[in-house]
Amino acid sequence: MRENDFLAWITAQTPAHPRVAVGIGDDMGVVRPGGGAGEAGGEGVAGVLLKIDQCLDRVHYDLRRHSAAEAGRKAVNRCLSDCAGMACVPAAVMVAVTLPRNGEGSGEAFAKDLFLACRDAAAAFDCPLVGGDTATWDGPLAITVAAMGEMPGGTGGKGAAPVLRSGARAGDTLFVSGRLGGSILGRHLTFEPRIRLARALAEALGTGDGGGLHALMDVSDGLAQDMPRLCAASGVGAEVYAGRLPIHPDAERLAGQDGMPAGLHALADGEDYELLMAVDPEAVPELIGVAEHGAGRGVGLTAIGTVTAGGGLALVDERGGRHGWPRAGWEHRSAG
Ligand SMILES: [Mg+2]
Q1: CA distance 205 to 73
Q2: Cα 319 to middle of ligand 1, angstroms
Q3: Rounded to an integer, what distance in angstroms lies between the CA atom of residue 121 and that of residue 271?
Q4: Strands (DSSP E) along 116-225, which ranges?
Q5: Among 130, 144, 161, 259, which residue's beta carbon has the most beta carbons within 10 A?
């Protein structure tokens, strides 16, 4: 079963609950402590944000080539990237590791290096590691990271509501941070979660009702897969201009090696851990301010397209020709 199909099945088996403000299907779940209606954060959803993520040897890293520090850092940062995808700040993480008895990833020194890397990756965002679990087995290393996120400044302030995938509206401008593609050449291990950028955008543009940052998610599986998710959650279509995609030099390098167009690498490779967002056109000046003078400096924000009322997703070439959306992208076969 493909991951999207399995997630759809799970969602159908998970009934609504008064405590759940945002259930399965966004970057993080949002839970109202106490189960009450919840105080609106900036006239939007409010609550505690939760995320859990797995990071497996030979799937997300390869211990024949990568160190404990690289694996641990990636495991935590993948989870923190989803915090960025909601524009929240990580309040705490927990890490469960299943350590192999033998081979790569076994031994006390490895386990200690792994723990320290996880602790330090979270500490880079002033986020404490508050617990976890360890077990040993005959299989490969598995690292599971759970994060709790919160909206800074309590409730009611500008940018105090988490930004969901479901808020994009027709006419919004689509932006992506950074450059895409070719992360397999190393960036999938060394990326920085865009938490500071997401917070800066949330505060400058505003979130929730009346805010200019309408929808947000992190690009973990590639734009080819993640753009349809944002559109589906929002019930909208999109036109993306192929010539405007910010192509990473690593995508060009890979294209030189395998002959695949660099633009296709940018769309389909995945593990970019950049931000995809739908922005009210009236808030674009504030976004440019963040891009040029704030947390976006050195990262970059590129307008790649427009949200449409319907009509599905289209890739538009430089001559205005419309093409079907590329279906390629990284889809984990096993869900979870
Ligand atoms: Mg995500």
Answers
A1: 30
A2: 33
A3: 17
A4: 129-137, 142-150, 173-177, 213-219
A5: 161
Question: Residue 275 Cα, ligand 1 centroid: separation in angstroms?
Answer: 9
Give me ligand 1 centre to Cα 112, in Å: 28
By the 8 A CB rule, do 276 and 176 touch? yes
In angstroms, what is the span from residue 85 Cα to ligand 1's centroid? 6
Distance 78 CA to ligand 1 centre (A): 8
SS3 69: helix
CA of 217 to the centre of ligand 1 (A): 6
Give residue 241 CA to ligand 1 midpoint distance, Å: 23
Q: Count of CB atoms within 10 A of residue 41's CB?
A: 24
Tell how far the Cα of 272 is from the centroid of ligand 1, in angstroms. 11
Q: How far is the CA of 316 from the centre of ligand 1 (A)?
A: 25
Reading the chain (336 residues) residue by residue, the pLDDT tens digits are 777 788 889 989 999 999 999 999 999 999 998 765 555 445 678 899 999 999 999 999 999 999 999 999 999 999 999 999 999 999 999 999 999 999 999 999 999 999 999 999 999 999 999 999 999 999 999 999 999 999 986 555 788 999 999 999 999 999 999 999 999 999 999 999 999 999 999 999 999 989 999 999 999 999 999 999 999 999 999 999 999 999 999 999 999 999 999 999 999 999 999 999 999 999 999 999 999 999 999 999 999 999 999 879 999 999 999 999 987 544 443 332
Report CA(32)–ligand 1 centroid distance (Å): 21
Phi, psi at 208, each rounded to 5°? 70, -165
As given in the structure block, the two tokens for residue 153 are 């400044």
The pair of three-digit structure tokens given for residue 178, joined into one six-digit string: 């950074």
Contact 86, 28 (CB under 8 A): yes
